[in-house]
Automatic annotation (TrEMBL):
PROSITE patterns: FERROCHELATASE. The gene is HEMH. GO terms for cellular component: chloroplast; mitochondrion. GO terms for biological process: heme biosynthetic process. Keywords: Chloroplast, Heme biosynthesis, Iron, Lyase, Plastid, Porphyrin biosynthesis. It comes from Micromonas pusilla (strain CCMP1545). This is Ferrochelatase. HAMAP family: Ferrochelatase (MF_00323).
Length: 542
């Protein structure tokens, strides 16, 4: 799947200011404009294309601020040093950056340097201590891709985030306390980064691997600063979510797009490509199937025989409106992903029954169904299921929702429902087959950039299913593409260039589509809150 164009090593001019993160910590209320279908068409044309530079869309500054409003909970190290040290996996590379003179000298000589490859792993981030929990939750709820307010109420994003984070913090802290007082996500993601770096090296690709988290340290902005400071010329952006959702990869890519759109140096010096989702990679599918088989065949498992347990795929949910109104491909990708793993299991001789359900819902709106808790109850109480192996499917690392929600809450619920034989497949973490596959994905992507693929295989969702088709850039960039009809499922290796996107939401053909007003509990709360705020603001000081 490629056709040729040239791959010029990114030329480097002397670097401009390499620090942008501090300026991103605004506190302005968010305001996010709807994107046009025409912009969406331009964005979609990126699928399958390789590097596109110097073509950055004009951005709405308020959009940018709203997505980059966050708090970092303080910390002992200076922000500059923290950003560098937090984001760079290669400790050697990090320490050399602390000398500004050396950094500038390196920048000056960079024009003559070879290509320098970087891989940016995007993830959600998690609180490392119990004190981090509330500010982490604030950052999460302040994200318009997580709490999607109607346009008229977007000015309430920040106050609402404050209210929601404060009210959820105690429950959340309790959960984090039960798994040792913090999220292991950063440690595991750093380990994955180090393993990926080594795997790439063994494939002949020298690359630094950076970690950029959306809601906690090391923040995405910090990783980008380190990427600039290191003089990376070619960047592969790899969200650590196998399936695409507006709320996860979409949010991180949107933020990254904003960072690029504000930064001429990045646009000029860093050629980049995105791997939006990769659930259908044979290596990932095979490593998931292998882990499941291993768990049910474990000699000390709770099961009488490997073919006894029901295989219970539990994915993180998203609100139904993401899929049905905004066109999030998450559900379709999840279903396709499970089907592929089940096929692979059959190939390995595993024919157990399976089910897919969605966990971790938050708030009063309807989320993807069936819900994990309801399904466990139904299976145990009404269907006589006695043995179950839980498979966390939307995560590649252990974290709060595997260690607390699945291992504690759902296990207990299963027992109460009569499912007495329980097992849980571990998250992939640094599984060698998985890491090797990620490395292959990066290599494929770099090759795609070299080839500067003008058209590529793409999968287009039609109705409820996912079908394959092909397209060419001309058609997609023609401007008459209907944003409502194409939330594309992205094949890996089809590079997507952030700088070409009207928005990453436009990459999906989704994101900020105007939505019909619906009166629900959230809207009611928002309007009440607005009236309250307006009343308070209108009151004369005593
Ligand atoms: C595919 C993965 C994820 C999707 C989709 C997702 C959507 C989503 N999440 C929330 C709310 C919360 N998520 C929280 C933690 C959390 N979420 C994911 C992954 C997905 N989220 C991960 C990996 C983590 C854990 C990080 C860690 O600390 O280990 C939390 C905080 C924990 C808690 O209080 O329960 C919240 C809240 C929404 C609203 C949403 C979609 C709109
Ligand atoms: Fe979540």
């Amino acid at each position: 799947m490629s056709s040729a164009t040239t791959f010029a090593t990114a030329a480097s001019a002397p670097r401009a200011s390499s620090r942008t993160a501090a300026s991103s910590r605004g506190t302005e209320p968010p305001s996010v404009s709807p994107r046009s279908a025409a912009a969406a068409s331009g964005a979609s044309s990126l699928r399958g294309s390789g590097r596109r530079r110097h073509r950055c869309p004009t951005r709405n500054n308020l959009d940018v601020r709203s997505r980059r409003m966050r708090i970092d909970g303080g910390g002992a190290r200076s922000p500059e040093t923290t950003r560098r040290l937090d984001a760079v996996i290669d400790p050697g590379a990090a320490s050399t950056m602390d000398d500004d003179a050396a950094t500038d000298a390196r920048a000056d000589s960079r024009a003559h340097e070879e290509e320098k490859v970087g891989v940016l792993l995007l993830n959600l981030g998690g609180p490392e201590t119990l004190d981090d929990v509330q500010p982490f939750l604030y950052n999460l709820f302040a994200d318009p891709d997580i709490i999607r307010l109607p346009p008229a109420l977007r000015f309430l994003q920040s106050p609402l985030a404050t209210i929601l984070s404060n009210s959820r913090a105690p429950k959340s802290q309790e959960a984090y306390a039960s798994i040792g007082g913090g999220s292991p996500l950063r440690r595991i993601t750093d380990e994955q980064a180090a393993a990926l770096k080594a795997a790439l090296k063994s494939k002949g690709v020298g690359a630094d691997v950076y970690v950029g988290m959306r809601y906690w340290k090391p923040f995405t902005e910090d990783a980008v600063d380190a990427i600039k400071a290191d003089g990376v010329t070619t960047l592969v952006v790899l969200p650590l979510y196998p399936q695409f959702s507006i709320s996860t990869s979409g949010s991180s890519l949107r933020l990254l797009e904003d960072i690029f759109s504000e930064d001429a140096q990045l646009q000029r010096d860093v050629a980049h490509t995105v791997i939006p989702s990769w659930y259908d990679r044979p290596g990932y599918v095979a490593s998931m199937a292998k882990l499941i088989k291993k768990e049910i065949e474990r000699p000390d498992s709770a099961f009488d025989s490997p073919d006894e347990p029901l295989i219970f795929f539990s994915a993180h949910g998203v609100p139904v409106s993401y899929v049905e109104q905004a066109g999030d491909p998450y559900k379709a990708e999840m279903e396709d992903c499970v089907a592929r793993i089940v096929d692979e299991l059959k190939r390995l001789g595993v024919r157990n029954e399976h089910v897919l359900a969605y966990q971790s819902r938050v708030g009063p709106v309807e989320w993807l169904k069936p819900y994990t808790d309801d399904t466990i109850r139904e299976l145990g109480e009404k269907r006589g299921c006695k043995a179950m192996v839980a498979v966390p499917i939307s995560f590649v690392s252990e974290h709060i929702e595997t260690l607390e929600e699945i291992d504690m809450e759902y296990r207990e619920l299963a027992e109460e429902s009569g499912i007495t034989k329980w097992g849980r497949v571990p998250a992939l973490d640094t599984d060698p087959t998985f890491i090797a596959d990620l490395a292959d994905a990066v290599v494929d992507s770099l090759e795609g950039m070299k080839a500067d693929v003008p058209s590529a295989r793409a999968k287009k969702r039609s109705g409820s299913g996912v079908s394959s088709g092909s397209f060419d850039e001309g058609w997609l960039s023609s401007g008459d593409y209907d944003a409502t009809d194409l939330p594309p499922v992205m094949p890996i290796g089809a590079g997507v260039d952030i700088s070409d996107l009207g928005s990453v939401g436009d990459l999906l053909g989704v994101g900020f589509k105007p939505e019909p007003w619906k009166w629900g509990p959230l809207e009611f709360a928002m309007v009440t809150l607005s009236i309250l705020l307006i009343t308070i603001l209108a009151m004369d000081p005593p």
